[in-house]
Amino acid sequence: MSWRATLPCTRAQAEALPQADDLFAHSSSPPVLVADEPDPAKPDDWLLHAYFEDEPDAHELGLLASLADGPPQVEQLGDEDWVTRSQAGLEPIRAGRFFVHTPSHVAQDGAVNFQIDAGLAFGTGQHATTKGCLGALDRLERDGRRFRNIADIGTGTGLLAFAALKLWPEAQAIATDIDPVAVEVARDNAAINCVPLGENPGELLLAVAGGMDHSLLAARASFDLLIANILAGPLIDLAPAFASELGPGGTIVLAGLLDTQAQAVAVAYTARGLTLVDAGSGEWPVLVLSAT
């Protein structure tokens, strides 16, 4: 038998989820954590699902409750594969030439495929910001843009860095995250998706860093493509550092912001001499800016 505990959470809480192995260090069979957005009309109302092989005890439920809002609702799922069930609601996403799917779905012929595990659901392409970033990168390549020095800041699962290297395979690329667990997740996903790791052109270098504060980033600056799918507040705070580390003619792709926050984020960058090339659209716009 398997068990599922569900409780409401905000989008910010979903983004901040630690990996189950870290949170449930005492457990020999840690749960798979999946956060989803059931109603796009309510972008801050998310659900956190935790899938357990055995009935969760009071301590485990208390850990879950500390991550979100309200007590967990627990249900027994029966004999089916609980990992497969946890993936069932994560439908594949097509964004430009990219097709992002969980292990329970098959790759699509003619697409650039990426597989991301269900337990790492945030950032798989299910959220509009990730899909929008993939689409923006796809359009940049189709428009003839060529990049040789790429940085993905706040990489999470590593998906956007993988996509950038597929589009510009001769570039050198670095992906960073403030969360060491996220960097390990990106490392695992790189292996699953045959993305080479290393310091040479065509390889991805991974590092733990907050913002642009890392010697590896400093050594590689200036960049001609910066990608950041995080939140509006950090994007505004990082505007001076991003602008200073972007080379002439470079491009920045920004996401993780609501349409009501887009103007404030754009102003933070245009005030530093960047030009807004694409203001995006919809509730979760992706901003594309260029240096002169």
TrEMBL record:
Locations listed in the record: Cytoplasm
GO biological process: methylation
Main location: cytoplasm
UniProt: S-adenosyl-L-methionine binding residues: T130, G154, D177, N229
Pfam families cross-referenced by the UniProt entry: PrmA (PF06325)
Catalysed transformations (reactions): L-lysyl-[protein] + 3 S-adenosyl-L-methionine = N(6),N(6),N(6)-trimethyl-L-lysyl-[protein] + 3 S-adenosyl-L-homocysteine + 3 H(+)
One MF term in the entry's GO annotations: protein methyltransferase activity
Protein name, entry field: Ribosomal protein L11 methyltransferase
Native source species: uncultured Sphingomonas sp
Lineage start: Bacteria, Pseudomonadati, Pseudomonadota, Alphaproteobacteria, Sphingomonadales
UniProt gene name: prmA
